[in-house]
Amino acid sequence: MECLCAISHDQLYSYSSSDSNSSSDEEEESMSEGEMARLMEEVEEKKKLIANIRNKPWRMKRRLTHLKEAQEFVDKFEGALGKGKGRKWYAYKVMMTKKWIKFQRDFENFRTACIPWERKIKEVESHFGSSVASYFIFLRWMYGMNLVLFGFTFGLVVIPEVLMGLPYGSIPRKTVPRAEQDTAQDYSVLMDFNGYCKYSVLFYGYYNNQRTIGLLKFRLPLSYLMVGIGTFGYSLMVVIRTMAKNADVGGGDGEEGEFTFAWKMFTSWDYLIGNAETADNKYASITTSFKESIVDEQENQKDENIHLRRFLRVLANFLIICSLGGSGYLIYFVVKRSQEFANRDDLSWYEKNELEIIMSLLGLVCPPLFETIAELEDYHPRIALKWQLGRIFALFLGNLYTFLFALFDEVNTKLDEEQAIKNASIWAMKEYYANYSRLVNDTMVTPPPMDPADVIRGPCWETAVGIEFVKLTVSDIQVTYLTILIGDFARAVIVRFLNYCWCWDLEAGFPSYGEFDISGNVLGLVFNQGMIWMGAFYAPGLVGINVLRLLSSMYYQCWAVMATNVPHERVFKASKSNNFYMGLLLLILFLSLLPVVYTIMTLPPSFDCGPFSGKQKMFDVIMETIDLDLPAFMGTLFSYAANPGLIIPAVLLMVLAIYYLNSVSEAYKNSNMELKKKMQMARDEEKNRRNNTDSTNQVMKDLEDLLPNRSLAPPPEPEKKPEPEPKPAKTKARSAGNGVNLQKDVSLASPNPNARGPVSQPPGPRGHGPPGPGPGRGRGRGAPPR
């Protein structure tokens, strides 16, 4: 083969080095088809070598040498294969393959360059590590999901109402009442989302209840309900898909407690760090991690006062539960107080925004308080972090649901008032018609319609709920941005410019530069997204506000972390699987769905505002569409599908299917665990065969203990060396649980034929001496260093 390749190389070289075209044609025709086929095979082998050069267990110098030779060979002889009769198609395919590979590489680079904020996130990652960058990646993911929700809401609800619906001022629900028109454009009124903001497309009450609007006969009420349900459906699908994708990516960190120091040694470094200070911090973090692991091993062997530790942990949990209960009662009290303030006109700025201020302050004060109380528990830092995240999440969720319960109390109060207001509006309309007829002295004259600004309005509880959610979201944005501006930027300015003239070192001591709070910011995003999911049904414009918030947060927080924060003293490598945060997001998505479903299925809509006015329940629009727009058999089919006798068996079947799939998953997990154990046992046996040691398999050891006479044991192999070896002493089988047992009476492992005998004399001098067992096999020369 080498001779044939050499002949082919010489022929092609003579072909490429010829001066005239006639001589080249003659040399090309002189090559046979077999030689061309063999040369083509060699070119393909060189291509495979280039593609798989990374997998070769060679040194880098050898890899580069072979890679350079292979590339030169392919570039020199691949084009020559395409010349001559019948070979132009091959040359064309080679050219198009190269162009396609180049296009794929350029397109991949273009697609990477089109990822939003990729360069900015990489810059943050190089300075602060992948743990801080994971927050901004999560923020970008949230922005993408909210952008899709924004497209659904504005494309199917807001834009059809603006383009095809009735204009502003045509009906009462789209007109500011006459008593509020003088102050409808005041800044304080607009900041409370009243005035013209209240009677706009931002809120539920602006939309009309006509079945179809415009020339396209667009069904706005049905679209409004489907978008509200589809928002939760799409969010659920995206979150579960991301969790499944992360679950596939995750894994490979090793089992907990197994090869701890080996995993730390070879997988701890974050190769995306590009800043010297962050690299130093990461180096110190890895060193600290090794020290902690050593301390953990030592702590597992220590005896402590377990009763005192349990008492302190129970006390800490009791104090935290009291704090959670107190924060919930405070929010309930403030909501009730705000209902009393609604009947007053002489309110101060604090009284108008008391609820939002209290909830924001609780979000700022309670997490540090929880962290201080958690010092009593003395948990491991990783366990303490999970407890801290769970308690902050419980605080946010408890505050949100307490706010909802108090809000629905107000809704029930408004529903009780709505019937009286409805009767009053009907009576006022009849009086208007009677007065007009008495004025013109003619009962047959049709009076002109009443001015929409003079019509008596109902409470429109859906708009009131939407306003509260929008105010809470805007207040959370303001508090977050002011906290960054004052708590981080002002602190960094003080440390930077007053450090030279202060009594102590401000950078090393108090207050020092701030660190980026990853867990707090992620939980803030999750909590804010829960408010968006809840409030988007009552305020369609809330999704647009959230998109603007996430967009500004990306630039604002990237600037803040680069300008005012320093890398963490302990830089953690971000896990490939972020399912913990996704699990919190999935939980708050489910809990956000419950109030909306309760509203749609139970509460009656307002009589004079919103797309569902005039109906008993909001979901009646679906039944109306089925009865009027679909064939009769479809209505019958839906009625059968809504029968409880069919729904209950379907739910039971789903539960059984989930149970079956869970059982199968557990069985697969157990099989994987058994397979890992068998692989570990096989590795131990192979290692023992190499080292000529006894078996570490506990089952085999038990079998050996059952064979005292060795009647069933396999016969020992004949000894290759005449020297007798000392008989090892027999040990107890239960000692195998404490480590590898190196001495056994019966060994099932085969002896190592390459094992050397015990060293009985010192090594002789290196050099050309007579062969013998004495000389060593070291790589150095001369005497060993002393």
Distance, first to last CA: 55 Å
Can you give the mean pLDDT?
76
Total count of strands: 0
- The shape, in one word, is globular
* Number of helices, counting only DSSP H or I runs of 4 residues or more: 23
Can you give the helix content as a percent range? 55-70%
Strand composition percent: under 5%
Structural class: mainly alpha
Could you spell the SSE succession in H and E letters? HHHHHHHHHHHHHHHHHHHHHHH
Largest sheet: none
Low-pLDDT regions: 1-30, 251-256, 724-759, 766-786
Radius of gyration: 39 Å
Overview features:
23 helices; 786 residues; disordered C terminus; 0% strand; mainly alpha; single chain; disordered N terminus; globular
Strands, helices and their partners?
Elements: H1 2-16, H2 21-30, H3 33-51, H4 60-77, H5 88-113, H6 118-128, H7 130-164, H8 187-191, H9 220-249, H10 260-267, H11 276-299, H12 306-341, H13 349-352, H14 354-373, H15 381-440, H16 461-498, H17 518-535, H18 542-564, H19 579-601, H20 620-629, H21 632-641, H22 644-691, H23 698-705
Q: What's the short story on this structure?
A:
The protein has 786 residues and is mainly α. 63% of the residues lie in helices and 0% in strands.
What can you tell me about this protein's structure?
The model is unreliable at 1-30, 251-256, 724-759 and 766-786 (pLDDT under 50). Helices cover 63% and strands 0% of the residues. The protein has helices at residues 2-16, 21-30, 33-51, 60-77, 88-113, 118-128, 130-164, 187-191, 220-249, 260-267, 276-299, 306-341, 349-352, 354-373, 381-440, 461-498, 518-535, 542-564, 579-601, 620-629, 632-641, 644-691, 698-705. The radius of gyration is 39 Å and the shape is globular. The longest helix is centred in the middle third of the chain and has 60 residues, at 381-440. It has 786 residues and is mainly alpha-helical.
